[in-house]
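My current task is to audit a protein record that another person submitted. Alongside the sequence sits a line of tokens, each denoting a local backbone shape. Please read both lines and tell me whether the tokens look consistent with the sequence. Do not assume that whoever made the record got everything right. Thanks in advance; the entry in question is below.
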Amino acid sequence: MIKNHYLKLTQFTYVILIVCMFSSLTTESQNEDKISTNYNEYVKSPREVAYAHLNKSLYLKNEIIGFNVYVFDKNSKTLSNVTTNVYCSIEDSNGKTLNKTLILAEKGVANGSFIVDSTYTSGNYTFKAYTNWMKNFDEQNFYLQEIKIINTDQENDLSTRTEAPAIDTQFLPEGGHLISNIKNVVGVVIKDDSGYGLKEAEGVIKDANGLLITNFKTNQFGIGKFIFIPEEGKDYTAEITYDDLTSKVNIKPAERTGLNLSLNDLGSKIALTVRSNAITLENIKGKNFKIVIHNGNIIKSLDLSFTDNQNITKLINHSDLYSGINIFTLFDENDNPILERLFFNYDGISILNSENESITKSIDSITVSVPFKSIKTSDFHNLSISVLPYGTTSYETNHNILSYTYLQPYVKGYIEKARYYFTAVDRKKKFELDNLLLTQGWSSYEWNSIFNYEPEIKFNFEKGISVNANVNKSKSNTFIIYPMINSSTQTIVVPENEKTFSIVGLLPVDEEKIILGSISKKQDVEKPNLYLQFTPSSIPTIDNFIKTLPLKVKSIYDSKIAEPIYNNSTFDAQELDLVVINAQKEKVRVDKIQRGQPNGQIDIFDEDDRNRYLDFASYISNKGFNVTQSAVSIGITTQRRITINSSSTPLIYLNKMQLSDFSVLLNLNMRDVDYVVVDKTGAGEGMRGAAGVIKIFTDSNIGFRNTASKDISQESKIPLTFTTPKKFYAPLYSSYRSDFFNQYGVIDWIPNGKIDSNGNFTFKIVDKGIEQIKLFIEGTANNGSFISEEKIITLN
């Protein structure tokens, strides 16, 4: 059994011929050679790695797929400030894309959502999150997750399989080679035909005469290992037993010559042993070998050579290893990589945990406060929280933020239930992760590529949308780019004899358009004649990824449930926010506006008002303000006498957002204005409002458009824009005590949770009589610390 093998390994007395501490290791930058030169060239370009937290992994028709994407610098494990453009997509099992979007990352965090509409049939889908820069590298730095969709309008048979699984057994010698006549550690992976490990499969190893050599047993992920010394020229077989199934597998014959590599974790240090047999020793005696250690960023090495002993063991302290992954590669005297072993060092990884929550109840809602006292609220941080019923079976994610950042990018294969190794970590889980890495073989950093293929940087870091403008027959060389939602007015002067100019870093959202004008020598704005090219102009694809496993479904959904699932497909948010139906009479709407604006004069615009004023300047000047306006700027000051220490510029709000740059008002289309509140006294704003307060509200049905008069500007559609995050709505269920809700229901999704000044994350839900909920929390804080937690909260 694995436990016995573990005891054998830890109690094994090593013949230590060379004992080294980290002082024997040298950084390759100090001793440049072929290996280090090629390696440093290969890794010199920075890498990003993405992790996406989805609110569930199993969805029903009409539900919202909420997701929050974290983009990290791969080496420092801190949030990346380089890229703003994050791409997300969903593909079906045939690779067809059903949804794709561009979302805006701010300080490395972006969020978005997809609707499960009628285009989805029941089945498995793949969610991807990536940046353009990630396309340059072979390692899997982007994010993949399998999800399952259930279309409730279809017949769905999600019952568990009844036929016996096929047994797939792999034997993987530690380091990569099975060598005759010496001790070998052999990893075992036993899977079903879907790729999932078979728990507690048992095996025995026998020779050709049926003599028992050793035995083993797999863990819950179908992984085990055993030790044996194969004799040269002899055949061995493994007899596997799983439930009532049996399987017989031939073991690949041991090699006559060669080396093997084994690693044993001794607690505070590791023992790394290289073994040869007698025949091999005669050929390698006196030759120089090298053990290289790297983590995808920094490289170190350790020289070794064989004398008269077949085994060489090196001891290295945990404190002298890299935090996270350590990739050990043995090179021969010709700098050929011959053996490799991965080891994970948990030391130095900062994981923050919550403390005991508090519950506050009101008439119809429950407020939950979860303390995170170790998070520095002054530093940027972000928590994404999925709030689900306690008995949910719809959250079966394979990874958490730690496993996808620290582990998955460094291995080639798919890791089943990777988040297990980073949840409530103890000695057993460390041992099991090391067993897993023993079976992974070579890392995702392939030495063939390192030696022969320097990464070709074809795809750039992306910060917004860039525009290249070609000037066609223009008398002016000065151009104005009108303000957009995420950018202020820009003026560009094109040098003489040049016919192009560029605009970089635009962050257009949804259907927003770009509007440009040219400024004549008389400072008049004229319509330019520009040919615009946008980069990027479409969502790129990314295809070089490993195969994932289909999502397991633990329960059966019966599409013929007699009782209705939802309550008229309405949403809790409608109860919480008291959404007013658009069909209210105009008088009711006007009364509501007047009640909500107790200070100042309210001008509610009708069709005549919208036609009366050509621009905002002409409107506000009639209200007793001084206005100065040019082609590129607008100034507004009060006519009232104010104190010396107060500004003469009024506070101006557009749709409740205070404007710091008034240029957005230059081309405010007055036909979009719903109403304006003008308060010359500035009551309620203190000294800040001494020059008055102006509040502009645009029509909610038409929407605010930064459009200019078409005869003096060029308006162009932007082919690719950022999708504005939408508010998440949880369905309103017909029953909150049903098995259906307990398994599949959704309570809330919070993609951008923040800690308040008291150190609490606080949220509110409608009181539906739910006794317990489960929080799935992922996030990052303190410039390098991680949060990954499942928390059960009792409400009633």
Observations:
- The radius of gyration is 32 Å.
- Residues 427-438 form the longest helix (12 residues).
- Residues 465-535 form a domain with the Immunoglobulin-like fold (CATH 2.60.40).
